[in-house]
Amino acid sequence: MDKYVVLFIIGSLVSVSNIFSQFKPIYAEEIQAIKTFEKIYLPPKNPIVFVGSSSIRLWKNIEKKFEKYKVINKGLGGAQVKDIIRYADQLIFDYKPSQIVLYIGENDLKYPVNSSDSIFENTKKLLSMIREKMPDVPVVYISIKPSPANDLYRNKMIQTNNLMRKYIETESNMTFVDVYKDMLTSNGGYRHELFASDKLHMKAEGYKIWQRILKPYLLKQPR
User: Fold this and answer.
1) Of 176, 182, 177, whose CA–CA distance to 208 is shortest?
2) For 58, what's the count of Cα atoms within 13 Å in the CB-facing half-sphere?
3) Molecular function terms in GO for this entry (predicted)?
């Protein structure tokens, strides 16, 4: 075969490979990195899995903050509900958790295609998956937090929180934990001191509120 033909074929195969790599599912490499890390540093057995978007991912030293509990952090920065559904096995089920703490839905707000109803339905889909595979494992759902950066979506956020609250109140072994009201002033304004410069992610002061509210709902286990 002519060498130029061979070079053309190789070049074509490389191009096709590059095209497919561009369509690799978002977070695939991050998930792989997590699993590789855990082959060296084994996670605790039957932990409380905190899973969700960047408000979970950026919770520094969460294991020390909840030192009386077996906690692991499986947050993905920027994740929407659909991403947690896609990687539910790797982020949740693989760990055989004793309890699951969810913070999801906030990143979905900014997309016009996502209504409060659709965010609710997607979240309900994830909760149904959890119930099907782990019918007895307690689930704690953290309400979507108010932040100055998301003020444009405040009504959608409130509606989503209300839908989630009403649904979870009808389910067994699920708890709706409301962080919304504690992160506002007495007259409903934003507490800017709780947020970083991007007005979206929390400072330590914001996480202290979450920690205080969540602790009564977590399962204590021998470490």
Assistant:
1) 182
2) 15
3) phosphatidylcholine lysophospholipase activity
